[in-house]
Amino acid sequence: MKLGHGQLGRRILLSVSSALLALSFAPTASAQDAGGEEKKDVSASEDAAKKEEDKWFAVINADVYPGTGGHFRDGTILAKNGKIEQIGVEVDLPEGTTVLDAGGLRVYPGLVAYASSGLFGASSSDFADTVNTFSPNLVMALGNGITTAGQSGAALKLKRGEIEGVLMKEKATTLLNFSAQNPQGRRSLLEKFDASARYLRDYRAWEEQKKSDKDAKEPSKKDSDATIVQVLRGDVRARFQADDREELLGVARLAQKYGFRPVIEGCREGWTVAEELGRAGAYAVVTPRDRTDKSEELVAAGGTSIENAAILRRHGVQVAIVPSSKGVDLGGIAGRDILALTVEAGFGVRGGLTNEAALEAITVVPARLLGVEHRVGTIEVGKDCDLLVCDGDLMHYETFVQQAVVDGKVVYEKNKELFYAHIRPNIDSVLAPETRVDKGQEGAAKPAEGEAKDKEEKKDEKGPDQGDKKDDKKD
Amino acid sequence: MKLRNLLSSCVALALSSLATAGDLVAIKAGHVETVSHGCIQHAVILVEDGKIVTVGKDLPIERGIPIIEAPDLWIVPGFVDPYSRVGLDARGGSEFNPQIRAEAELFPRNEEFEETLETGVTTLGLYPPGSGGMPGQACAIRPVGATAQEMLIKSGSYLLFVFRSDARSKKMLKDAFEKADEYVEKEKKAREKWDKDQSKKKDDKKDEKKEEKKEEKKEGTAADFQDEVAQDKKDEKAEKTDAAKGYVPPEADEKIKPFLDLRANKLRMLVTLFGAADWLHFSQALGKEKIGYDLRIALTRDIDVYEVAKQIGEKKLRVVMEPEITTMAGTLRQRNLPAEFVAAGAKLVLLPRGDSPTALKNWPRNVGEIIAAGLDRDVALRAMTLEPAEMLGIAERVGSVDKDKDANLLFFNGDPFEPSSKLIAVMFEGRIVHGEVQQ
Do B304 and A134 touch (CB under 8 A)? Predict the structure, then answer.
């Protein structure tokens, strides 16, 4: 792979890691100096001995927003075989590392769409045997930063052009109906919960009893519901669709009574009962731009609020954000389909959510809800190397995903795909001004090795006009 | 139409009588596209008993041999359409029927075959009907003959597998090979048992007399003893017949046999794919199984198989597709997939756009459009002749202008891929069956 187009960062290869990188990329790799070099060779040969086919990938010179709070500059993220191995400022890169230079660009964790439809081809179940990972919808979703998506209760990785490893978790959530509009269903669900809770209690008692009395009889599973048992054990998350205040309170009470943490989709009036929901340990899946009027019959506060996400969050409810449409459709023009995930999160920020919380609402929280938090949602050592290289704040409407990385592989490059390549093709124009000054000064003070060569390459790629322009800026 | 048929058959009759007079005919032609070894100018082809005897440049012709003079004509080998339903009308579902053979449907003397021949298609691969699953095995035929047996060149040319990305298709493939494994296991056991019996019997023979005496002394009921003796006698008898016959492996299920043949390279598989993802799922389902297979990729408007062209090309697989320009999914950007697959390293078979006489007639012209869009001309010609012949496993007989091959030759009045060119005459196994040529 060629170096990415973080041209500014490339000019000043200052840090140890990037210097090493330049060496490993130079065609005459043997004619090289210095101590760091030896070290690298030793570690590289050791690794080679261990396992020859280790695949190394690194993003360098990035402003890293790991999604765990805070951020740092000039960071390197090194991945081995698709898993993040090391994150830091000065990281030695093993020989043969595929490098993506994100100089002047921000790096975020890949986004997690809590619910989606139509990204993986026509089928909505049996993903392992049917997924179409060449679908244009999938590529567009990658182009808008989504690297993991929930669909029909399963968690799927957007592995473009591959079918192994797409299905991350087959049954992550189960939809339960506890609506007041369906009293019969409500009653039967309550009965199921009762029976299942009783079964679990008896089962635990039996486990204790078994220690002393070997002939103790195992409790019968009769009446208990397998799915509810899974929910109560915490293996599968129960999700409810509830918007009205009363319904929300109903779910909260149910959850508190049986001791599980419900996922509430919709949750439009959640802000009116945020405290109760927080106490019940609920998760909310909200759409900040949802609009419903308050019911005229009610005295209490009601209807939607732009502050919904922020208020819920303040009361301890973990919030995931989804756009109003799950699919990729014409709604995309109006920015309300799945591709508008970051825009929707931006509206959460507008309603008072912090930037960090909004980022979590489209990364780690949905990952948690889908049961894949241990693999995706943040940039942390040991997790999957799913990254986005962006030309600005992720939630800014102007920002584009320049590169999307899934499992340590660049699967999307804006400039090479049909969808957005023509919009603001020159990324220098959208870099933050202070970054430009910083890099320029450093570059002017101490031109890095191989600078001239880089510049030449760039001229070839982008044409003489732009090269000249850059020189002007530098001067 | 009928009049023309009549006329042409009259001509054919006249010519064939001419040809059979000495059973020998020479053709002098301006250009001969041999396919196997390039184009020969001023070529002479000598045909005897329907086979090509020699091909060469400016060869001397013995006096007395009738000569077909075609100094301005281009001669190419008869076209081979390896994926056709011409003359067949059965319908199929999507079951697992690998044992069915397409020739069972064959109805000789069907007018369609004659029409096919007139368009220059001198060999057909007929496939069994089916919209999914494994509908059966295709056969290679000549479109001439009074009986099905006469028409048949090769039975079991390829096993058709209409693959779709779903659990059913994948399971079908895996199960079939698992059952083949079971059979192999069973066969192995049967063989071991046979070997054991064989050696045991040898030992038995040596000790036979001693043992019989011992057994008499042994305690036991008379009935037991008698049984044993009877058993011994039976064994002896069985041994004799076995030894005469040698080892006979147990019979394999008719639905499993094709898969044993696939593994033994006696049969190929033709896998129909509908998109790039199908290729991934098929590869996954096939796993490490080593069989010979070709890919049938029906070029629909928005097909995305270019995504896997590289993977398929690297494996040097053969792709079977129509001469069509497709567009990139969701756009109006055009792609020449036949050319792309060839560039990636795949072998190419081009099909006519349909089975109707019109589609067959337009076949060279359609291929010409793909050549105009960038496909190599020689590859294109090969994709209509020798490559499909190889795919059907009958390349030793048809597909190129070579010694010992059937004299299936097409006479064009120009480059066959030029729109202005016309098919002047068709020679089928040494006889002119359509059109006229100068004698």
Answer: yes
- Claim to verify: residue A191 and residue A297 sit in the same structural domain: yes
CB-hemisphere CA count at 13 Å for A160?
22
Task: Give domain status of residue A441, yes or no.
Answer: yes
- A→B interface, C-beta within 8 Å: 121, 123, 126, 129-136, 161-164, 418
Residue B123 has pLDDT above 50, yes or no: yes
Q: Is A40 in the same domain as A117?
A: no
Mutate to test the interface with B, among A123, A127, A132 (most CBs of B within 10 A): A132
A302 within some domain: yes
Q: Looking at beta carbons, which residues of chain A come within 8 Å of B286?
A: none
- Please tell me if residue B301 touches chain A, with a CB cutoff of 8 Å: no
Q: Could you name the CATH architecture of B1-78+399-439?
A: Roll (2.30)
Provide the mean pLDDT of chain A: 82
The tens digit of pLDDT for each residue in B44-77 reads: 999 999 999 999 998 988 888 899 999 999 999 9
CB A337 within 8 Å of CB A287: no
Q: Do B331 and A418 touch (CB under 8 A)?
A: yes
Smallest Cα distance from A418 to chain B, Å: 9
Of A320, A353, A378, which marks where a domain is finished? A378
Whether the pLDDT of residue A27 is over 70: the answer is: no
Residue A361 and residue A245 share a domain? yes
Split into its structural domains, chain A has a count of 3
Number of C-beta neighbours around residue B260 at 10 A = 18
**Distance in Å, alpha carbon of A91 to nearest chain B alpha carbon:** 35
Domain boundaries, chain B: 1-78+399-439, 80-191+252-398
Q: Give per-residue pLDDT as tens, B162-185.
A: 999 889 999 999 999 999 999 999
Q: How far is B273 from chain A (nearest CA, A)?
A: 13
Q: Are residues A348 and A245 in the same domain?
A: yes
pLDDT tier at A411, thresholds 50, 70, 90 = very high
A107 strand-pairing partners: A64, A389
Q: What is the assigned CATH class of domain B80-191+252-398?
A: alpha beta
Indicate if A322 and A463 belong to the same structural domain.
Answer: no
**Whether A221 and A307 share a structural domain:** yes
Q: pLDDT-derived band of residue B290, with 50, 70 and 90 as boundaries?
A: very high
Mean pLDDT of A386-397: 94
Q: Considering only CB atoms, which chain A residues are within 8 Å of B167?
A: 126, 129-130
- CA pair distance B105, B128, nearest whole angstrom: 8
- C-alpha pair distances (Å), B241 with each of B238, B245, B396: 5, 6, 40
Put simply, the answer to whether A126 touches B166 (Cβ < 8 Å) is yes
Output the domain CATH number for residue A44.
Answer: 2.30.40.10
CATH value at residue A271: 3.20.20.140
Q: What is the pLDDT of residue B231?
A: 52
Q: DSSP assignment, residue A236?
A: S
* Residue among A134, A136, A418 minimizing CB distance to B277: A134
Q: pLDDT tens for residues A142-163?
A: 999 999 999 988 999 999 999 9
Residue A266 lies in a domain: yes
> Residue B287: pLDDT above 80?
yes
Q: Does B312 touch chain A (CB under 8 A)?
A: no
Nearest to B355 by CA among B88, B84, B1: B84
Q: Where are the alpha helices (DSSP H) in A89-182?
A: 127-130, 136-143
Q: How far is A158 from chain B (nearest CA, A)?
A: 14
Q: Kindly indicate whether the ipTM for this predicted assembly is greater than 0.85, answering yes or no.
A: no
B305 Cα to chain A: minimum distance (Å): 9
Range of the domain at A150: 111-169
pLDDT at site B282 = 95
- Looking at residue A4, its pLDDT comes to 41
A142 and A90 assigned to the same domain: no
End residue of a domain, out of A101, A136, A169: A169
